[in-house]
Design goal:
Helix content: 25-40%
Bound molecules: nicotinamide-adenine-dinucleotide
Structural class: alpha/beta
CATH superfamily of the largest domain: Isopropylmalate Dehydrogenase
CATH class of the largest domain: Alpha Beta
Shape: elongated
Largest sheet: 10 strands, mixed
CATH architecture of the largest domain: 3-Layer(aba) Sandwich
Number of helices: 13
Strand order of the largest sheet: 2-1-3-12-11-4-5-10-8-9
Radius of gyration: 26 Å
Number of domains: 3
């Protein structure tokens, strides 16, 4: 018997959770349920996180969490409970299988069996945002080596366990050479440890286009958080419906299982929602807790039900479907098929070890030789001619540090800028130290003090380092 935490959520949540639990219990799931309240009611009672500390305790104690979708009220400083659950509990891996059910569910892609493995904790989802000038706001994109290593190793170990043939990586490292560059670099390092699994890398734009066009060419795809969020919804939708896909959020200690769709408030309490997405999440949960036989029984009964043309309204299609059922009745149909297998769709067999993956703990590498080589000073300035800003900024120079470049939104505007380049009020002045000298933070403070005296408004600084002699910063565009 495994104790699990259950949250019925908002909108269609309670209906699809009841249907899901009824099916898995009928299939023999050995689970003890501890229910908690999260979401809209908790938010509107004045708790901006959507969850009480007692509920956090329950989730942390039981370690396995089956969650229905919740409604995050708009505005008012409410924090997304999904994002905070993933981050608080260290659920670094988001696994979303997207498989087409042709010819029983209408899709343009009859052959499609993709698993998206999405990094779940960092990237732009760190949510570190600032307004810096009247015209410019920024969001910090944080990518870490442990974050990359954990998710990429997870993807390869998952592929190995599931007997999948290829792992593809999507990044935009032609533009983001440091952040996406690190993700790609770690992908190449880890891929070399798995010679039996094919590996490839695509730039995300053409990669996503290929997923939408020829999904049959992909197997497991691993990517940073934001790209994974977008591409997994595309992949789920083109199998026929977002209502069909489930997702597992896996960490070293805890795991959370859910549907990928939201709380669909417009169809709530009408007994029309498709419980399949949450049921798919529950099947992943049963595998995770080692109840693979029950998982297999549920999945095969569900496939048989879909194959019989017994469908909820979202996937019902005249000519393809035989019967349109409500949420409760669909659950009963799946239960009636427990013990049966599909005949045209491929039945699943989870007899190979399908349980939770046990990955080695991250080991920090020895520190590199880190050298401060300069600083980018970001300036709020409403002038138009970069030569004027350069004239003022040059007054900050010393025998050790010189102004080497000014950019506006990343593009070089001084020296030798183009008059056609559109400029905002947000400028970056790059100061570099002479190669022979060693500088420290005191030199940067000196620069800032001089800037203050010259009435140059510094809104932020970013130190420039080299690591083992390699530049740890990008060049200006056009530099
Ligand atoms: P949504 O996924 O709830 O709905 C999108 C569309 O898909 C709607 O037309 C809906 O009716 C349909 N749909 C979704 N699930 C379905 C199902 N199981 N059966 C049949 N049709 C289904 O997305 P949204 O409308 O953008 O968001 C609604 C709310 O859900 C928002 O408050 C959002 O914050 C929240 N949300 C929660 C989660 C989560 O808890 N994991 C994820 C996404 C959105």
């Amino acid at each position: 018997m495994t104790k699990i935490t259950v949250a019925k959520g908002d909108g269609i949540g309670p209906e699809i959770m009841d249907a899901t639990l009824e099916i898995i219990l009928a299939a023999g799931a050995q689970i003890e349920i501890e229910e908690i309240e999260v979401g809209e009611k908790v938010y509107l009672a004045g708790n901006s996180s959507g969850i009480s500390s007692a509920s956090w305790e329950t989730i942390r104690r039981n370690k396995v969490f089956l969650k229905a979708p919740i409604t995050t009220p708009q505005g008012g400083g409410y924090k997304s409970l999904n994002v905070s659950t993933r981050k608080f509990l260290g659920l670094y891996s988001n696994v979303r299988p997207c498989t087409s059910l042709h010819p029983f569910v209408c899709t343009k892609h009859p052959i499609m069996d993709i698993v998206i493995v999405r990094e779940n904790e960092e990237d732009l989802y760190a949510g570190i945002e600032h307004q810096q000038t009247d015209e410019v706001v920024q969001c910090l994109k944080l990518i870490s080596r442990p974050g990359c290593e954990k998710i990429i190793r997870y993807a390869f170990e998952y592929a190995k366990q599931q007997n999948r043939k290829k792992v593809t990586c999507f990044t935009k490292d032609n533009i983001m050479k440091q952040t996406d560059g690190l993700f790609h670099e770690v992908f190449d390092e880890i891929a070399s440890e798995y010679p039996q699994i094919e590996n490839e890398h695509w730039i995300i734009d053409i990669g996503a286009a290929k997923v939408a066009d020829t999904p049959e060419e992909f197997d497991v795809i691993v990517m940073p958080n934001l790209y994974g969020d977008v591409v997994s919804d595309i992949a789920a939708q083109i199998t026929g419906s977002v209502g069909l896909a489930g997702s597992a959020n896996i960490g070293e200690e805890c795991a959370m299982f859910e549907a990928i769709h939201g709380s669909a408030p417009l169809i709530a309490r009408k007994n029309v929602a498709n419980p399949s997405g949450l049921l798919q999440g529950a099947v992943m949960m049963l595998n995770h807790i080692g109840q693979t036989e029950v998982a297999e029984k549920v999945q095969n009964a569900w496939l048989k039900t879909i194959e019989d043309g017994v469908h909820t309204v979202d996937i019902y299609k005249e000519g393809l479907s035989n019967q349109q059922l409500g949420t409760k009745e669909f659950a009963k149909a799946v239960m009636a098929n427990l013990g049966q297998q599909p005949t045209i769709l491929k039945p699943v067999s989870y007899s190979n070890n399908n349980a939770a993956l046990n990955l080695p703990k991250y080991k920090r590498k020895p520190a590199a030789k880190k050298k401060l080589v300069g600083v980018d000073l970001f300036v709020h300035w409403t002038g138009l001619n970069p030569d004027e800003l350069a004239h003022s900024a040059k007054k900050l120079e010393s025998s050790l540090i010189a102004l080497t470049m000014i950019t506006n939104r990343g593009i070089k505007v001084w020296p030798e800028g183009f008059k056609e380049t559109f400029c905002t009020d947000h400028w970056r002045c790059r100061f570099k130290a002479n190669e022979e000298v060693t500088i420290n933070n005191a030199h940067i403070i000196e620069l800032l003090t001089k800037a203050f005296k010259e009435n140059i408004e510094i809104i932020k600084t970013e130190n420039l380092y080299s690591f083992d002699g390699k530049a740890g910063y990008s060049l200006g565009q056009g530099q």
